[in-house]
Amino acid sequence: MSENQRRAPAPAGRPLTVADVLALPVLAQGGPRVVTGPDGVDRPVRWVHITELTDPASFLKGGELVLTTGMPLPDDPAGVRRYVDELAAVGAAALVLELVRRYHRPPDALVAACRARGLPLVTLARDVNFLEVTQVVHALLLGNQADAMRRSQRIHEAFTALTLRGAGPEELLRAAAETSGRTVVLENLVHQALACEPSGGPAQAALTGWERRSRATVSGDGTGVRGPEGWLVAPVEYQGERWGRVVMLPGPAGPSGPSGAAGPSGAAGPSGVAGPSGVAGPSRAAGPAGVAGPSRAAGPSGAAGPSGAAGAAPAPAFGPEDVTVLERTAMALTIARLTHPTSWERSAHRGALRDLVEQRYRSPAEAHARITALGLPTEHSRFVAAVVDVPAAQDTARTEDRLSREAGVTGAQALVGLLAPTRLGVLLALRPSQPWRPVVERLSRAALGPAPGTAVSVGSPASDLAGVPRSFREATRVAEATEPGQALPPDRSFHERCDIGLGRLLFALRDDPRVQEYAERQLGRLLDHDARHGTHLLATLRGYLDAAGNKTVAARAGGLSRETVYQRLRAIERVLGRDLESGAQRTELHVALQALDALRGR
């Protein structure tokens, strides 16, 4: 393997650039120096052309690195300007002049003409074998084309496999982000970010201020680089109409991403390449003389635009593989939209609610950015969480639809989503001065309509998003303490913490072995006695305790004589070894009875 092959750049999805070629040993040994056009050293090189003609432009098609000893250069400044103008007009990548034979310093007229046309002029201080340069570079170019075709084929195969497997939007975006090394976001027509797969950074960096930034990025026809931040955007359709779009952000690609490989001089950052409209947007890359070229992501019409948010480091320009990845992602999303019955807005709400309930966000800032990107205000709002338990799983979709519609009618903004097979979660965002009970009451009545037997449990309000998990925990505890068919309070259609008394608390704890052991230890011998002898001592004990220890009231309620009650109470004391005249012991037995009722589902 030659030294040039060993040290050849590995573009990994981006074209060879002027800077890449100048860093090759075959040219580096000539001591290259960028005299003009340092911003253009990251131009793509399509071919290398050796010329000693006075009109080489007629043999060029654009993108060539032109090598010359300077022998054919005109002597007059006008002829030099014409020579350079023709090279620039045809789109030559750069002019390389060897300062060995005719010249020992670049002619002033040539420097001025190249500077005027923005054509990179590179001088070589030592003799270089131009033929070897063409052999090395052409081998690299042909190898790159073959590699690009293989990578493109792998991308198509990967997304075809995902489509055939029925992958959803989260999985498709994850594949796109992993393949490109960039953050990928799916949004709908109202600029709500329904799914985000970050790459190399937290989600809030991508989603903060999403709607404002997205509205500044106007969609065009097909895939292209758009907006002030230079987003790569592709439309997503549904039943022949535009449904939303998938966005690839121009943040720095990761080290394994196709656009993130280090250049041959060691400076990270790929070159600009032709986007879908054919307009190249060069990015920052270190030139052979250490001159850095600025990042210029090309807009759809070719105008240079910023490559990232203000203050961010220059981002690598998008390459052909990025375009391929995004277009295949958009196509797979279009097919997935047709095959997945659940709307993606609904799926996004479900995912966001689960992440909040389970506190899966890495930071409060990420939670704020994610929820705000879904259209729910997080600033100057207070939140109320509710869980809605429906009788059967087939009732969830209808109830979910009704709750979503009703939330809009009330003027409140809400996330509604499935948390469990028969449980829905609701997160309301209200103005600080807006009373929450009327809104929750209206939603509760809406939930009770389509599925009788539905129970709505509500947590206490949270003053900010950080308190939402606590509000959901409270709502869940209220739901756990609510038996099926539990009567509603007389003044409302939902349950809340103040409704939980001893009986409902024990119902919530009924699966705790300690509660089961307590009920058995207190009442087990009495239950065994009734089972063996056919007596009804437990019923007598219940009546006595319900009467607060009043034997006369207990006898009347049970339809028994006072003497019979006295006899049974003495039998109970004997069986349990307890003193029923003791208020403390009566309380213990009363709690045990309540626990027994909870265990029996009474």
Short description:
The chain contains 21 helices and 16 strands. Helix content is 43%, strand content 14%. The chain folds into four domains: 18-140, Udp-n-acetylmuramoylalanyl-d-glutamate--2,6- Diaminopimelate Ligase, Chain: A, domain 1, CATH 3.40.1390; 166-250 and 318-339, Beta-Lactamase, CATH 3.30.450.40; 346-500, Alpha-Beta Plaits; 508-601, Arc Repressor Mutant, subunit A.
What does this structure look like?
With 602 residues, this protein is α+β, with helices and mostly antiparallel strands. The protein folds into 4 domains: 18-140, HprK N-terminal domain-like (Udp-n-acetylmuramoylalanyl-d-glutamate--2,6- Diaminopimelate Ligase, Chain: A, domain 1), CATH 3.40.1390; 166-250 and 318-339, GAF domain (Beta-Lactamase), CATH 3.30.450.40; 346-500, Alpha-Beta Plaits (2-Layer Sandwich); 508-601, PucR C-terminal helix-turn-helix domain (Arc Repressor Mutant, subunit A), CATH 1.10.10. The chain has 21 helices and 16 strands. The strands form 4 sheets. The protein has a 5-stranded mixed beta sheet. α5 links the parallel β4 and β5 (121-124). The protein starts with a helix and ends with a helix.
- What class do helices, strands and sheet pairing give? alpha+beta
Please give the radius of gyration in angstroms: 38 Å
CATH topology of the largest domain: Alpha-Beta Plaits
Strand content: 5-15%
Biggest β-sheet: count, sense, barrel? 5 strands, mixed
Number of strands: 16
Shape summary: rod-shaped
Number of helices: 21
Q: Mean of residue pLDDT? A: 81
Oligomer: single chain
CATH architecture of the largest domain: 2-Layer Sandwich
